[in-house]
Amino acid sequence: MQPHLEQILEDMDTLRPLALQKQENNVELRSTMRRIVQHVEHLQRTPAIHPAQHQSILMLLSQLLDAEHGILLKAHDDTGLSEQDNQQLQAHVTERQKMLQTIQQDWPALQTFLTSIQDLLGQTPSSHDDLGVRIRELEKHLREHLHQDGQLRTELNQFINVLQGSIGSVLHMLDEVGEDAPELKQTQNILQQDLPDDPIQAKALLQQAREGLVQAGNKLTAASQTMRDNMQQQVSQMTDLSSRLEEAEHAARKDPLTGLANRRKFTEFLTSLPQDIDISFVMVDIDFFKKINDRYGHDAGDDILSDLANVLNDCTRKNDMVARLGGEEFCVVLPEAGLQQAGTLAANLCQAVSLHRFVSGSHHIDVTISLGVSQRKGSEGSELSIKRADKALYQSKKDGRNCVTLAK
Known about the structure:
CATH class of the largest domain: Alpha Beta
CATH topology of the largest domain: Alpha-Beta Plaits
Structural class: alpha+beta
Radius of gyration: 55 Å
Shape: elongated
Low-confidence stretches: 67-76
Number of strands: 7
Oligomer: single chain
Helix content: 55-70%
Distance between the termini: 124 Å
């Protein structure tokens, strides 16, 4: 073989300049000829195997074939192998002969075993006898079975975790009503253990847990009724408490004498109003209220305050708020009302009070009020607007009372 390769390389050296002389710019031709030379040089460097060695190997392999085909391979004495190599190769062939004999003996049992496994997995065995195909099918079926078993075990563990939480809640409920449940505690301890891999052991463990749950059933029923009665009682108490709290909350925002909003509700109402609307304020004060108290008594004064609250409510709009700020001082908040509109309403209030018949016991008491009106300016706070209305109110006092003054 070596002389042939050397001759090819010499011929390539002769042909290459002739070919490239005619096509010296042909890059593909240069590359192709260079690649041919590289392949030939690679073959030249590859160690050669003596034909006798091939013959020896064929002779030994013939022992693995049946008599009819093995006879076709003839022996050759000059193998080119050492005695030690020949012995190792002979031992290897002998080992393979034993393996083939074992496989031949075990083949029917293996076929039966594969068929039985497929039957157990609920799969119909294949009709062909190819061992590799049958084993691959068995592996596929086993993987599917293990996957389903893993999913079932995962779902079972999730159910056990949920059940443990439920048992904990039930134990807490039983403890609340004074009932002891050792069966449930035992069941909880069982479920806290890791589920065994052995299906029989796992089934036995779950059976113990089931028995504990069944035994706790009657106690749970009785406890549920007790808990239901307790809850109904607590709901009744909570409803009563909620009503009282609601009444207290309402009373905390209402003036107890007049029923008008007090300062707390007045402040909350102002906070709830949008900043981008017109808001006007009317401050109201009873004229000579101290003299009324001194002449007719404080009970008469209280009657006047209550009656005045009704007049103010009757003369204002639904969305307005009338609040008693203290003593004989009142404030009317007018959302979405300008200064002139508020001034008109204040004048109506002034006239309505002067015409109203105030009565306390057997006394008919003449009552008038003085009023001051302001409108919130831009980003001005409500407190400043109220102070300007209060200042306008005192101007009405100076001007002779029973009149309205608009703040600037």
